[in-house]
Specification:
The complex is a heterodimer. Chain A is of the alpha/beta class. Chain A is built from nine helices and 18 strands. Chain A has a seven-stranded parallel β-sheet, sandwiched between helices. In chain A, 59% of the residues are buried. The N and C termini of chain A lie far apart (46 Å). Chain A is globular, with a radius of gyration of 21 Å. Chain B is an alpha/beta fold. In chain B, 28% of the residues lie in helices and 31% in strands. The chains are: A alpha/beta, B alpha/beta. Strand 18 of chain A pairs parallel with strand 13 of chain B.
Chain lengths: 329, 249
């Protein structure tokens, strides 16, 4: 039966959180298909040391391509290398993370291989020997179940949806020689400007603190920043379309149909009324907490827990309480 | 310099989605369709570049049925010079769409091809880089602003953890996201002019979709609606519930 390949990401030589998720999803799918899961990781010198961990998440074989030219993602180089390994490996299914990097990489690989691609997959199963993919459309207002009539089947997986699961496998490391010529890659990376240090992107954070119009102005975001900090390093910041349109927050933080669709385990909606296009973008979150002055705000209809009240009074108390809980834990 | 912008007709983002009678697509009755918001950014970016350079032509291209003429007219009303409708089936198979567009791009002398970063209906975020790969051209995705130099284009784009600046030799393909390109409203004059601008219609060089949709479903309604309390005094109870009931703290 066809093997499953997980194309996993590293940053600075360490596995990214999505790497364990994609690897675990590949291992689970391979078990259902009665086959085995492999991993592919590209990186700079030292990446081989980080790659070994993938064996604990179900990788029978770990292909590692290690070269200084692969230290950071490259939009011309990475697709070439990934395509070559897929072609050489006879894979029936290839899974990527639907991260910013994965969404840049996977369509290029799909075009090189001449096969379709399903983006932002939230469910994988085997039906009658075929891989069935569940994925949101209309930013989560609906879901489609689909199959891909080509091989390999390519899918990128939405971060935070597939749980990492320890499942020890052989984890045999296969170094793959790097044979591409970086001088032939047309795109030149000139500069990288880090925003917000180590704060995870809203689409990958496992906890999200989002603010809306009820925050009354960009100068009050320090309150949400404090709540985010209290929740730990896995927490990211989000925003409603209204505040992005008003220029209070960058578009990269926007949650909803013309922004990002997120699925964190915990989502705080502060001062967000809950427009339909916002709800579409966050309704698959694990637990939703809403704080809003207006008891009739639509956000309370989807929130698991709501507090009717002024964000300026509730949020500081919330931040303090969470800090105390975490310190006591 | 000529610029080609690929656009798509999608349901307005305020649409309440209902599943159609085939069980695999939306019920489009009563749905208002618009030019996909991300494609509006791409049209705006193309128009600003043309205005700054004072030369060149902006051509809007769309794959779809006759109803997409309306979408192309929206791009013309914003200021595009002419439009091409590629008549063919639009599906979830972005590679089939990219193929149809690639055949058209080859027929134009347009060093820059712009698309929205994703379509607001399928959210697949794949046609741009697929198109570029098929054409053998470099591509920058999720571009928030760019400037054209002699023979190249310099783009700022959002990546995991920050903003990257990349330089691509022309010809190139860019997918545009919200950034500097807040789209203009079509003026009445623009709307009138759009009616007289050339809109060519031809059969698309399409291939069949290899993505088969078995079903479309609405997400389970969340059983929310539980108000814990009012004001800051409700915080301790909320924290208890998050810790003991939801198990998330």
């Amino acid at each position: 039966m066809s093997k499953v390949l997980a194309v996993v990401e590293q940053r600075g030589g360490s596995l990214r959180g999505t790497a364990r998720e994609v690897m675990s999803a590949a291992a689970t799918l391979a078990a259902e298909l009665g086959s085995e899961a492999h991993a592919l990781i590209l990186g700079g010198p030292g990446v081989t040391a980080a790659a070994g961990e993938l064996g604990s998440y179900g990788a029978a074989v770990i292909h590692v391509v290690e070269d200084p030219a692969l230290e950071d993602y490259h939009p011309d180089g990475y697709p070439q290398v990934v395509t070559r390994v897929i072609r050489d490996g006879d894979y029936g299914v290839v899974l990527f993370a639907a991260s910013a990097q994965g969404k840049d990489l996977s369509p290029r690989v799909a075009a090189h291989l001449d096969v379709p691609l399903a983006t932002d997959t939230t469910g994988l199963s085997v039906q009658g020997g075929e891989v069935e993919i569940l994925r949101p459309v209309y930013a989560g207002k609906a879901f489609t179940r689909l199959t891909i009539q080509a091989s390999p089947v390519l899918a990128s997986l939405r971060p935070n949806v597939f749980q990492p699961r320890e499942a020890p496998a052989a984890g045999e490391v296969h170094p793959v020689p790097f044979s591409e010529d970086p001088a032939s890659w047309p795109t030149k990376v000139l500069d990288f400007e880090s925003t917000g240090g180590d704060v995870p992107d809203v689409s990958e954070a496992s906890v999200v603190v989002s603010g809306g119009r009820g925050m009354k102005g960009p100068e009050h975001w320090a309150l949400l920043e404090q709540l985010r900090e209290a929740l730990g390093s896995e927490a990211g910041l989000g925003a409603s379309r209204a505040v992005v349109d008003a220029g209070w927050r960058p578009h990269g933080e926007q949650v909803g149909q013309t922004g990002k669709t997120v699925a964190p385990k915990l989502y705080f909606a502060v001062g967000i009324s809950g427009a339909i296009q916002h709800l579409a973008g966050m309704r698959t979150a694990g637990t939703i907490v809403a704080v809003n002055r207006d008891a009739d705000a639509p956000i309370f209809k989807v929130a698991d827990y709501g507090i009717v009240g002024d964000a300026f009074e509730v949020v500081p108390r919330l931040s303090q309480g969470i800090r105390e809980l975490r310190e006591g834990a | 310099m000529n610029i080609l912008v690929c656009v798509k007709r999608v349901p307005d983002t305020e649409t309440r989605v209902r599943v159609g009678s085939d069980g695999a697509s939306i019920d489009s009755s009563g749905v208002k369709f618009v030019l996909s918001p991300y494609d509006e950014f791409a049209v705006e970016a193309a128009l600003r570049l043309k205005e700054a350079r004072g030369e060149g032509e902006v051509v809007a291209v769309s794959l779809g049925d006759d109803s997409s003429q309306e979408t192309l007219r929206s791009a013309l009303a914003m200021g595009a010079d002419r439009a091409v409708l590629l008549k063919g089936e639009v599906s979830l198979d972005g590679l089939a769409t990219a193929r149809a567009l690639a055949a058209e791009v080859e027929a134009h002398d347009a060093p820059l091809v712009l698309l929205g970063v994703k379509a607001a209906d399928d959210d697949q975020q794949q046609v741009g880089p697929m198109l570029a790969t098929l054409l053998g051209r470099p591509c920058a995705t999720a571009v928030s602003s760019f400037e054209v130099k002699e023979g190249s284009v310099i783009c700022r784009r959002g990546v995991d953890g920050g903003t990257e600046t990349v330089e691509l030799p022309l010809p190139a393909v860019l997918t545009i996201t919200k950034g500097e390109y807040e789209p203009r409203y079509a003026s009445l004059k623009g709307i009138m002019a759009a009616k007289r601008k050339p809109l060519e219609s031809k059969e698309a060089a399409t291939s069949d979709s290899r993505i088969r949709v078995a079903a479309m479903e609405l997400p389970a309604e969340r059983s929310g609606g539980r108000i814990v309390g009012e004001g800051p005094d409700a915080v301790p109870e909320l924290l208890r519930l998050l810790r003991e009931e939801a198990n998330v703290l």
